[in-house]
Amino acid sequence: MRLQSVIGQFTALNIVLLSVSAQSAQQLIDAVLNPFPNLTHYSSYSSAIYFNYTLYNQTPIAPTNYDKLEASAKNILPPHAYDYAAGGVGLEKTVDANRQAFDHWQILPRVMRPVLPARNLSRVIFNRTLPAPIVMAPIGVQTLFHPDGERATSKVFGEHGLPYTLSTATSTGFADVAASNGDGNPRWYQLYWPSDDDLTRSYLRTAQANGYEVLVVTVDTWDLGWRTRDLDRGYFPFIQSIGVQIGLEDPVAHEKLGFNALATNATAEQKQMAALYHVITTSRGVSPVWENLWKLREIWGDKPIVLKGVQSVEDAELAVKWGLDGIIVSNHGGRQIDGAVGSLSTLPDIVEAVKGKLTVGFDGGIRTGADIFKALALGADFVQLGRPILWGLAHEGDKGVRHVLKSLLAEFELTIGLSGCQSLEEVTRDLVTVTKVFQRLYTVFN
Ligand SMILES: Cc1cc2nc3c(=O)[nH]c(=O)nc-3n(C[C@H](O)[C@H](O)[C@H](O)COP(=O)(O)O)c2cc1C
Ligand SMILES: *[C@@H]1O[C@H](CO)[C@@H](O)[C@H](O)[C@H]1NC(C)=O
Ligand SMILES: *[C@@H]1O[C@H](CO)[C@@H](O)[C@H](O)[C@H]1NC(C)=O
Ligand SMILES: *[C@@H]1O[C@H](CO)[C@@H](O)[C@H](O)[C@H]1NC(C)=O
Ligand SMILES: *[C@@H]1O[C@H](CO)[C@@H](O)[C@H](O)[C@H]1NC(C)=O
Ligand SMILES: *[C@@H]1O[C@H](CO)[C@@H](O)[C@H](O)[C@H]1NC(C)=O
Asked: One short Pfam family name for this protein (predicted)?
C-alpha cells in the first residue's frame, strides 16, 4: 500500500523508473537506489535521495545547496583548514568576482523539444571519450580536509571515469593516488615547474610511469600570493610537511639532498629540510617563460600539455603559437591576485580567439550544475571542480565527495534537459544571455 503510493509519486519525477524492467517492487527500488555505475542517468540521484528518505528515513550526508554545504564543512573542519581552502588573497575581491561573473549571465531555456531521459553528456577531451566534460581541479594538501585526502577524491573521480588531476602539492604520492584512482581511469598531473631540470624530469617520468596522461602546467603560482587568512595565523601547511609528498618520495630529490627523508632512520631535521626543499624548488619565486616550454615537450613527448592560469586573449594566442594542446582559463580561485577579473568574464573573448585551435578548460567559481552549463555554453570544452569537492571531502571522505559530485552531475544533467538540450552539442551560446541589468549598464557606457 505504502510502496504503491511511493512509486506513484516518483514515476512522474523520473523516467528512469519507466525504463527499468523490474520483476518486483523491490527490484525497482534497488535499481533506483543502486543504479549501474555504467548508466549515466546522473539525474536519477534525486530519486535516490527522495527514496532514501521515504523508505529509510535517511537524508543525504551533506547539504545539496552549496552555501549550506560550505557552512557545514566549516563546522567540521579546524579553522586553519577551512580558511586555507575558503580564503583568497587580500580583500578576496577576486574570489567574489569569480562568483559575480556567473551572475552576469542567465540561462535562456528552450521548451517543447524532443528531449529524452538519456541525455548524452559525453565529450572527447584529449583523445579520451569522457562521460562528461568535468575534471577534478588540481588541489594540493587534501589531507588537511580529511585523513583520506587525495585517496578519497581520486577514488570517486575514478568511479565516474572523470579525470583526476594530481597536484605537485599533493599530500599523497603518484603511485598511491594511481592505485586509489583505479586502472585505466583518466589521470592528469599538474606541475609546479621546478627550478631544477633534473627534478622536473624525474617528476614527469614518475607521473608517466603511473599512468598520468595529460600534463597541466600551472603558470600563475610561481610565487605565493598575499593570502591574508593564512598570514594572520602564520599558517603554511608545507612547513608542517603537508603537501610535499612528491618531493619526499622522489629519487632525484634524495640524491640532491644526500638523504631519504622517508627512511626509517631519517631525523626530524632531515624531514623538515626535505619538505622545505620541495616548496623552494617548486614555488621558486621566478616565473616560468614560454621559451623554456620545449624542455617539457622533450620529456612529455606528444602527450597533451596544458597551461593553467590563462586570463588574457593575448596569452591564449601565445599558447597556440607555442604549440600547447590546451589552456585552462583560471585565476587559481582568487588565491593569487586580488582585484582581478572574474574568471568567467574572460572566457568568451578567449574562446572567440582560440576555439578549435586548442582545448579550452575553465575553472573559478563553479558551484552548481547550472554554473557548469553556463561555462560550457560560453564555449569551454571542459570545466574543473575545486572547492565544492573539498567541502564534500570534509564530510567523511569519499562519501561526501561522492555525494557532492553526484549532486553536481545530476543538477547539470537536469539543467541541460530542462533547457531543451539532448547533448552537449546543443549547449550553445544562444542559451545564455547577459543579465538585463548589465545590458543596461553596457548601453550607458558604450
Ligand atoms: C585549497 C586549494 C588548493 C589548491 N591547490 C592548487 C594546486 O596545488 N595547484 C593548482 O594548479 N591549483 C590549485 N588550486 C586552484 C584550483 O585548481 C582551482 O583553480 C580553483 O580551486 C578554482 O576555484 P574554485 O574552487 O573557487 O572554483 C587550489 C585551490 C584551493 C582552494
Ligand atoms: C551495465 O553494467 C551491467 C552490470 O555489469 C550490465 O548488465 C549492463 O548491460 C551494462 N549496461 C550498459 C549500457 O553497458
Ligand atoms: C541511501 O542509503 C544508503 C544506506 O541505507 C546509502 O548507502 C546511500 O548512500 C544513500 N543514498 C543517498 C542518495 O543518500
Ligand atoms: C554521445 O556524444 C559523443 C560525443 O559527441 C558521441 O561520440 C557518441 O556517439 C554519443 N553517444 C550516443 C549514444 O549518442
Ligand atoms: C588516441 O587514442 C587512440 C586509441 O585509444 C590511439 O590509437 C591514438 O594513438 C591516440 N592518439 C594520440 C594523439 O594520443
Ligand atoms: C640511514 O641509513 C642509511 C642506510 O643504511 C645510511 O646511509 C644513512 O646515513 C642513515 N641516516 C642517518 C641519519 O643515520
From this structure: FMN_dh
Question: 3-class SS at 384?
Answer: strand
Q: Label the pairing between strands 359-362 and 382-385.
A: parallel
Pocket test for ligand 6, best of 255, 259, 262 (most atoms within 8 A of CB): 259
| Cα distances (Å, whole numbers) of residue 44 to 11, 29, 122, 154, 306 | 11, 12, 17, 23, 34
Q: DSSP per residue over 205-224, as a string?
A: HHHHHTTEEEEEEE-S-SS-
Domains of the chain, earliest start first? 2-56 (no CATH), 69-444 (3.20.20.70)
The alpha carbons of the chain give a radius of gyration, in whole angstroms, of: 22
Would you say the pTM of this structure is higher than 0.85?
yes
Tens of pLDDT, residue by residue over 352-393, are 999 999 999 999 999 999 999 999 999 999 999 999 999 999
Structure confidence by residue, pLDDT tens digits, 243-281: 999 999 999 999 999 999 999 999 999 999 999 999 999
The CA–CA distances, whole Å, from 9 to 14, 31, 166, 326, 413 equal: 10, 17, 43, 46, 21
Cα separation, 53 vs 107, in Å, equals 31
Residue 307: helix, strand or coil by DSSP?
strand
- C-alpha cell belonging to residue 353: 580567439
Q: Does 332 participate in catalysis according to the annotation?
A: yes
Which numbered ligand comes closest to the C-alpha of 309?
Answer: 1
Distance in angstroms (rounded) separating the CA atoms of residues 52 and 59: 7
Binding site for FMN: residue ranges? 138-140, 190, 218, 308, 330, 363-367, 386-387
Asked whether residue 37 carries a pLDDT value surpassing 70, the answer given is no
φ, ψ of residue 335 to 5 degrees: the values are -100, 5
- How far are the Cα atoms of 35, 105, 442 from residue 436, in angstroms, in the given order? 41, 9, 10
Cβ of 331 less than 6 Å from ligand 1:
no
User: What whole-number distance in Å separates Cα of residue 26 and Cα of residue 435?
Assistant: 47
159 and 131 Cβ atoms separated by less than 8 Å: no
Whole-number Cα distances in Å, 100 to 95, 367, 408: 9, 12, 19
